[in-house]
Amino acid sequence: MSEPQDRPLERTRLESADLGAAWERNAESWLAWARTPGHDSYWLFHRDLFLQLLPPPGRRTLDLGCGEGRLSRDLKALGHDVVGVDAAETLLAAGRTADPALQLHVADATTLPFGDASFDLVVAFMSLQDMEDLRGAVREAARVLERGGRFCLAIVHPFNSAGRFQGDEPTSHFVVEGSHLAESYYADSLVRGGLEMEFVSAHRPLEAYAEALADAGFLVERLREPSLPDHAIQRPRGRRWQRLPLFLHVRALKR
Ligand SMILES: C[S@@+](CC[C@H](N)C(=O)[O-])C[C@H]1O[C@@H](n2cnc3c(N)ncnc32)[C@H](O)[C@@H]1O
Fold first, then answer.
1. Residue 187 has what pLDDT?
2. Mutate to test the pocket of ligand 1, among 19, 47, 66, 86 (most ligand atoms within 8 A of CB)
3. Helix 89-98 to helix 27-35 angle, to the nearest 10 degrees?
4. 7-254 in CATH: which number?
5. Any idea where the domains of the chain sit in the sequence?
6. Which of 35, 22, 249 is nearest to 156 (CA)?
7. What CA–CA distance (Å, rounded) separates 234 from 135?
8. How far apart are CA 157 and CA 141, in angstroms?
9. Separation of alpha carbons 125 and 135, rounded Å
10. Most CB atoms within 10 A, among 7, 17, 101, 211?
11. Cβ < 6 Å from ligand 1: which residues?
12. How far apart are CA 42 and CA 68, in angstroms?
């Protein structure tokens, strides 16, 4: 069977969405997307930037929304005692096959199967924008963290999810047609390198993340806005993402 032709990202705003069901539906596509060497931004630059945000390995690290476990495996190799949690059973099963020794739990981020203060580091890499109950997940991360522990997260930058570029030029206008301030759902669909993927996520304003962190008892220590580094530009239209942030990185301290 021939592979599908590449198709640039198309974004559709949705009235409603079942974020968890979307990950189970797209699990096979995600496994190919996430695991093809050099394909995803994770391998090109994003993992390395995110790792710079983390404290050194400590007592125990939770990978919240670990998916098929690529970051958990990398953290383990770096010396973290890692536990992964994800709601998508198909992804976790693939994670267990990749490393049967990794502790991976099927659970919702709002009801974690761990006692209070079980970890000194919780990471949520590109998962909070895909979770239905942001506040519940952040509260639960705070509960399972010890005092003085860190919560490190990466999300699609709210600037990115609020709008779209109007063209492929490095100087193309970026337009917000709806509201940055209102929460909404959207589906991004694309084919790249012959691999098809659909991402269904929630757009939330920056304030929603900052308030969820503050209300759960976190103090933001670092906030970074990664754009596309030169070495990761594979197509001319990638240059647009050197003017605006693709992702948002936050390191927060549990007080
Ligand atoms: C973009 S993927 C990222 C996966 C992984 N962190 C990685 O980078 O490979 C988002 C993940 O969040 C998970 N997720 C979404 N809602 C969740 C919830 N309520 N509880 C736990 N995991 C959830 C999805 O199943 C999916 O695996």
1. 97
2. 86
3. 40
4. 3.40.50.150
5. 7-254
6. 249
7. 36
8. 20
9. 16
10. 17
11. 19-20, 23, 34, 65-67, 70-71, 86-88, 91, 108-109, 125-127, 130-132
12. 13
